[in-house]
Amino acid sequence: MIKPEIIDRIREQTDIVKIINEYVPLKKAGRYYRALCPFHSEQTPSFYVSPEKQIYHCFGCGAGGSVYNFLMQYEKISFVEAIKKLASKLNIVLEIEKIPNQYQPLLDVYEYATNLYQSNLTKSNIALEYLKKRRLNPEIIKRFRLGYAPSGNILYGNAKHHGFSEEVLIKAGLIIKKEDGCYDWFFDRIIFPVFSLSGKVIAFTGRSLDDTREPKYLNSPETPLFRKGECLYGLYQAKNYLYQNIPILVEGNFDLLSLVNAGINNVVAPLGTAFTKEHALILNRFGKQLMVAFDGDASGRNATLRILEILLKNGLNPQIIFLPDGFDPDKFINTYGKESWEKLVQANIDFIDFLLKITDTRSIANKQNCLKTILNLIALIDDKINQELYINKTAEVFAISKEILLKQIANSLKKKEFNEKPSRKYSIPLIEQQILSCLLTTPAYIKIAQDELPYTCFASPDVQLIIQKIYQTVDNTSAVAKLIDEIDEPELKQLIIDLSFRSNIIPSEKEFIRKLKILKANWLLKEMQKAKEQGNETLLQQLSMEHYNLKKNLSQRKR
């Protein structure tokens, strides 16, 4: 691990304006620098860089953070890679500090299990025959490290013998503990290891050899390393191909493996679960285009329809590979071959044509419903040029004036805005927002707040964490950037960025102290109520006296 002091030193010595200007032309705008956002399409600049705080923020898409975040988001690299890149520019030698990885026991047991499953596959004629029927060549089996989990608690017995504790095996989701003992989570299944982007095995999917056995596909339970709604099967093997080729999203593991088997490497699949916003954001890193190749049956068509909203809402432009009825990618590629598949890909359609294909539009009612669905989807597109192209096409297809369609889309957006609940996880009182914003924008007020107000007076534990870290900062230009880098929770990080770019007028020192005292008085009332409920009369009396003096002081200041 890179030493924290080196990370801080690189951040402090880096000029974020200079670095971002290498990628996006910035123009001075008051105390900030401004540009068209590189992370979403826009016509009016909403991307701002603060040289004072060494952070950036887009008021359009919400992107923001330190110089490290910018490089990670723009170049699609890891935190460590961003540090190395900047260190190279500054001629700083990186010192690596060896510290234990808290997840290493899980990674070790997953690697052991993968090797064991692979070994079991070579010994199982039934499993090998199954993969042979699926037409997978040995190179693909090896590349994706496919394996086999036999019956008989083979993993549990072997792992215990090799020194892995029962606790680690349970935490890894490899065994399940019941009243009469421990049992392997996977048995009598083909095993598909799930890899992190760095190539570490972090989970497994098991496919039953018997099609009548349910569930047909079984994932590892979720762990600190694995959230199935945030992982895509095959992403590790595909990542180097996705920068040059549009990603193809398929439904199943064998759909993916059969395509790769035929030399089509830009393929990923969700892990037998609903496609999520997190999946869309992962794919967004590799470009705005995406091919969707779900099964050519009613279930596959409905699944395609369901993900369109998620894809469009998260900045992706989906094209649909329309498979013939009764075919999935696995069956199609093995029946007709690579050349026919490539023709199918070239004949991809957009979501308007897809909806027209799956809807019987002979009746006016069906046509209206189809049009309504299309307009609702168009309303989700942020890219104005892209949106305009889809509106023009819809007007032409349905022979309806563009003006009428624009009104309908405007109404759809108004309804959505009215009905949609705020997505912000952190709803904090206005006075706490004001104080936090002051501390983030005016370092001189940090010492004042420290003397007047303990961080425990803030309502949310998450906000308490921010205040506690702010109280520990020194007055330097990268203090806010450092704070952002140290916060792991994305929405909490976003809150800091939002408040750091507030353009509110900074209150006078007298007014700021008054706000601190009001917040403390409110906190004292809550503490008094707790003391009363606990029957702690001594503490109640102390708090009451402190609250009385505080209110008296506030009253005198007001006069």
Task: Walk me through the structure.
With 559 residues, the chain is α+β, with helices and mostly antiparallel strands. 54% of the residues lie in helices and 11% in strands. It has a 5-stranded antiparallel beta sheet, with helices on both faces. A 5-stranded mixed beta sheet has the order 12-14-13-15-16, with helices on both faces. Strands 6-9-10-11 form a 4-stranded antiparallel beta sheet, with helices on one face. Helix 20 (430-441) crosses helix 25 and helix 21 (444-452) runs parallel beside helix 25 (509-534). The longest helix has 26 residues, at 509-534. It is globular and about 85 Å long.
- Strand order, largest beta sheet: 1-2-3-4-5
Please report the number of helical segments.
26
The proportion of residues in beta strands is 5-15%
Label the overall shape: globular
Rg estimate, integer Å: 28 Å
Which structural class is indicated by helix and strand composition?
alpha+beta
Helix content: 40-55%
Termini gap: 57 Å
Secondary structure elements and their pairing?
Elements: H1 4-13, H2 16-21, E1 27-29, E2 32-35, E3 47-50, E4 55-58, E5 64-65, H3 67-75, H4 79-90, H5 104-123, H6 125-133, H7 138-143, E6 147-149, H8 154-161, H9 166-171, E7 175-178, E8 181-184, E9 189-195, E10 201-208, E11 217-219, E12 232-233, H10 235-242, E13 248-250, H11 253-261, E14 267-270, H12 277-284, E15 289-293, H13 298-313, E16 317-320, H14 329-336, H15 338-346, H16 351-358, H17 364-378, H18 384-398, H19 402-419, H20 430-441, H21 444-452, H22 461-472, H23 479-486, H24 490-500, H25 509-534, H26 537-558
Parallel strand pairs: 13-14, 13-15, 15-16
Antiparallel strand pairs: 1-2, 2-3, 3-4, 4-5, 6-9, 7-8, 9-10, 10-11, 12-14
